[in-house]
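Hi R.,

Here's the chain you asked about this morning:
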Amino acid sequence: MYMVRLYFLTLFLLSAYSPTNGQGNTNFFIKNPTFFSFNFHPFGYIIPHTSELKQVALRSPLGLQGDFGWHLNTLKSWNQCKCYPRTGFSILVFDYQNKRELGRAFNLTGFIEPFFGFNNKVKTSFRLGAGITYLNQVYDSITNPNNLFYSAPLSFMLRTQLNLHYTIDKNWEIKAAGHFQHISNGGISQPNKGMNFPTLSIGMVYLPRGVTLLERKASAIDSLLSSRWQHRVFLTTGLKEISITNEQKYPAIGITFYTSRIISRINALHLGISHLWDGSMDELKKQTNDEVRENAFSILGGNEFLMGKFIFSQAVGVYLRKPTRDTENIYHRWGLYYRAFNNGLVGVNLKAHRHVADILDFRIGYTW
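And here is the predicted structure, written out as tokens:
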């Protein structure tokens, strides 16, 4: 069931990027030019973040990436994020050059890509993407015991991408990019140390109709809410395993509250408190004599990138009450949220202790 939930949540996030969201189809396609791009990833590096992973992460991954989307250039798009973003879908194939243990990854992600600069020949952009990945060679205790990166064929991918564009003419661009990819199932299936791999790519972008961006002024502070101060509360739910040998899924439910202060047009700093009830701790109590707590409390703070209806959140948390004595004192969280309506948020958030994913949770929230 957990993969079904993950699949439908991913579809929902992808639909949030859809050009038909809140606009007439005909209007959208007339006003926002389409683009196609192709990138080759000739160099990459799989980060072996524990000694157990070094023997399988010896070679550089190779990748191919195809993009299709729209360059949003209307006043409505400008008013959402005070930028002219590209949005669309990416299909990516990565070969980890270790056929027996790591195999290949086939990925579908949706993305939002704000641009910095307008009609200059050289422009930069930053892309955030999320989606699903199919892995054709996963952990198996007998046939593939060394692949501790991932154990679920259908998993989750988060991506960031920094791009440099050089305009040849109105229809063509050359693009060089640096990418960072993270693959994980959020601790739902074990082992799940997660794979992090940066890559470099070069490619071409084709805009059949070209695109001309109007110069518009942006205020120093802008958001969908008028106040610099924003408050958010989230209800969260997820599933997790506790070991490789125990594949049962245990529920985890929590609540998070934080206050956010907008400091620039696209940035906010936040500070808050979080509670998590972890159903797997009850089973863990039966297996150990150590102190185990089902309820954990922590404080957390970090940064938010505000991009219209999308919020990309990064936070560091410090436990006030840890789940177990051996749990790390500090964790980090990465979240992607979509403002589904005026004050309502939906999204996904990954919690990890250093390099090891702890839980992927799905959340609904309210902001004011």
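One quick note: The longest helix spans residues 2-16.

Cheers,
M.
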